[in-house]
Amino acid sequence: MTKIHITELVLRDGHQSILATRMRTEDMLPILSKLDSAGFWSLEAWGGATFDACVRFLREDPWARLKTLRKHLPNSRIQMLLRGQNLLGYRHYPDDVVRAFVQKSADNGVDVFRVFDAMNDLRNLRVSIEAVKKSGKHAEGTICYTTSPVHNIPHFVALAKELESMGCDTIAIKDMAGLLTPYTTAELVKVIKAAVKMPIHLHSHATSGLSAMSFLKGVENGATMLDTCNSALGEGASHSSTESIVAALQGTEYDTGLNLAQLQEITAYFREVRKKYWQFESDFTGVDTRVLVNQVPGGMISNLSNQLKEQGSLNRMDEVLAEIPRVREDLGFPPLVTPTSQIVGTQAVLNVLTGGRYKSVTTEVKHYLQGFYGKAPGPVNQAVQSLAIGSADVITCRPADLLEPELDKLRNEIESLAKSEEDVLTYAMFPDLARTFFQERAAGTLKPEPLLTKEAMQAGGQRYAPNEFKITLHGETYHINLTGSGQSGENQRPFYVSVDGVNEEVFVETLSEVEVGSSGNGSSRAKKTNAEGNSSKRPRPAHQGHVTTAMPGAIVEVMVEIGKKVKAGDPVLVIEAMKMENEVQAPVTGTVIGVFVAKGDTVTPDESLIEIQPE
Predict the structure, then answer these.
(1) Sign of the C-alpha dihedral, residues 320, 321, 326, 330?
(2) What is the per-residue DSSP string for 341-382?
(3) Contact, 53 vs 89, CB < 8 A?
C-alpha cells in the first residue's frame, strides 16, 4: 500500500493566492492545535510572500510569527518556501547572508525548506541547499514547471538529476500557475521517478481546473506527496481542496489516512476567517483557463488585482494579462514565479499604462537582461535588451559570485535599531521598509492596515465612496473619477481624481472621525500638497524638461540636486511601484532647476517630480 502524504497550504499559499497574503497571525492561532493533530506530512506556513506582507502591510515581525507557529505546532513539520539566492527578497544576496538566513530560519522553527530558483538556474540553489543540509533540516529541491518552446520533459529530468546530486531529500514539481495537464503529469512523474530515487512532491494551483486530475495521474505514476489547501481557501487560484483529495483517495491503495470530519472542523473555522478579509478578494481568483496562455501564478493574481485596484486601473487587467506572455517571450521564457513573475508582471503593467511598450523599463528588467538573476532559459529579444541596457556587458557566471559578503555591513547600518540577528536579516530583505518598521516598533506606533467590515457598511454607520460619481456645485456639474490613492500619512492621504477628464490630486486631512454606527458630524478638508507637505501642489508637467513617473508609487532615491547637469537618459529618481524599483530617466539634456520630491514621498503620473532646463 502506497500512503500519500499531504502538505497543507492554508497558512501560506492559500491566503497568498486568495487574499493577497493578508491573513494575520492572530487569526491562525485558534486553529493551530487542530491543524497540528490532523496528521499532515507538513504545514507550509512561512516564506513566499508572507515575510514581505508581514512587514509591509500587517506590521508584524515575521520572525515572531515563525516562533509563535513553532510553539503552537509541536507535532508538525513547518515548511517554508525559499527562493534560493533571492531568499525572501527580490534580489540576489551574498552567500554569507544566505547561510545566515537559512540557519536562523532553522533555529526559529522551519523543518522543511522548499528551495527553488525562478529561472531554474540550479547554480542559484547550491548554497542554500548546502546551508539547509548543514542545519540538519529537510532540503526539498524544486523544479519550476512551465511550458514554452524551450521547456520539455528531458529538460526537467536533467534538473531532477542535478538536484539529487546536490543532496536533496525530496523533489518538488512546482506548478505555480496550474499548467500541468493530467497526461503530461503522468509522463513527467513516471520519467523523473525512473531517473532519481527521491520521493516526488507535486504542487499545482487549481486555476485552470486541472490540478485534481493531474494529482490523480501523478499518484498513479509514483508521486507520494501532494500539496493541497483547505477548501475554505482552496480551489481557483489556490490549490485543490484538501478534503476533496482526501476523499478521492480514501479506501484506495493511496489512502492519506487523514480524517475528513476533522478536516471539516478546520474548514468551518477558516470559512469564518475568510469573511474578515473580504476587501482583499478579487474577481481573478476563480477558475480561469486563460492561465494556460498568460501563465500568471496563483500567488500573483490576487496581488496584481489589488495593486491595479489601488492605482485605479483594475479595468485594464485584461490588457495586462494579454501583455504578460509577450514580455515573457521577450525575456527568454522565464518561468513565472517570484521574482520573475513580478519582474514580468510589473513591466507588462508599465507597457499598458504608459501607452508604449518599454517606454519605461524597470530596474529589475535591466538587471535581468544583464544576467543578474541567472541564465535566461531561452534567447532574449535583442532589440529589447539593447533598449534596456545598451552596450552593457552581460554576465555569464553565477550572479552571487560577483557579490561581496555584506552581513557585517548590514549589522553596522542597522545597529541602532536592530534588536537581534533576525532584525538584521529583515533589514537585508527590505532595507527601507525594515528601518521604518523598527522605528515605529521602538515608538510603539506599529499599526496594521485597517480591515473594513461589511456589517458596518450594511448598517449604514460606515460608508464607502463610489469610484465614479458627479458633483453639482453652484449650478455646475462635474464628472469625478477616483483613479487611485496614495499611502496615508498622519491624518492625511492623497487621492488622485479625474475631474471632467482633467487629472487632479487632492490631499484629504482628517479633522475628526465618525464612529461606526454614530451620527456624529465628523469633518475633513481637502488641500493640495507638495514634497514639503505644504499647501502648494507640485507643478503640472508643462514642457519636455518636466520629469514624471509612469505609475503611482513611492520615491526610493533622489539622484540629482538643483544645479546638476544631466544628459537625456541619465537616471534621476528611483521609484517603487508594485514592489519593484524603477529608475526614472531624464527626458532631456540640461540643468536641474527644480526638485519637488524627497525620499519616501508618494507620487503620481500627473505631477512633475523634477524640472530640467533643456540646453
Answers:
(1) positive
(2) HHHHHHHHHHHHHTTSTTSS--HHHHHHHTTTT---SS---H
(3) no
b or e along 357-372 (b: 16 or more beta carbons within 10 Å of the residue's beta carbon)?
A: bbebbbbbbbbbbbbb
Helix (H) or strand (E) run with residue 132 in it: helix 126-134
Helix (H) or strand (E) holding 5: strand 5-8
Helix 62-72 crosses helix 95-108 at what angle (to 10 degrees)? 40
Hey, what amino acid is at 136? G
β-bridge mates for residue 115, sequence order: 82, 141
CA distance 53 to 371: 28
Contacts of 488 (CB under 8 A, 6+ apart): none
Q: Say if residue 503's pLDDT is above 70.
A: no
Whether 232 contacts 313, CB under 8 Å? no
Percent of the chain topping pLDDT 70: 85
Residue 501: left (phi > 0), alpha (psi -120 to 50), or beta?
left
Question: What's the distance, CA 12 to chain centroid?
Answer: 12
Mean pLDDT lowest among 69-73, 85-89, 193-197, 550-554: 550-554
Q: Nearest-CA neighbor of 3 among 253, 214, 189?
A: 253
Question: Helix or strand or coil: residue 557?
Answer: strand
**Rounded Cα–Cα distance for residues 132 and 115 (Å):** 9
Q: 468 — alpha (psi -120 to 50), left (phi > 0) or beta?
A: beta
- Taking only the tens place, the pLDDT of each residue in 261-284 is 999 999 999 999 999 999 888 777
Question: Band of the pLDDT at 12, cuts 50, 70, 90?
Answer: very high
How far apart, in whole angstroms, are the C-alpha atoms of residue 553 and residue 604? 7
State how beta strands 112-115 and 78-82 pair.
Answer: parallel
Closest to 596 measured CA to CA, from 612, 610, 614, 584: 610
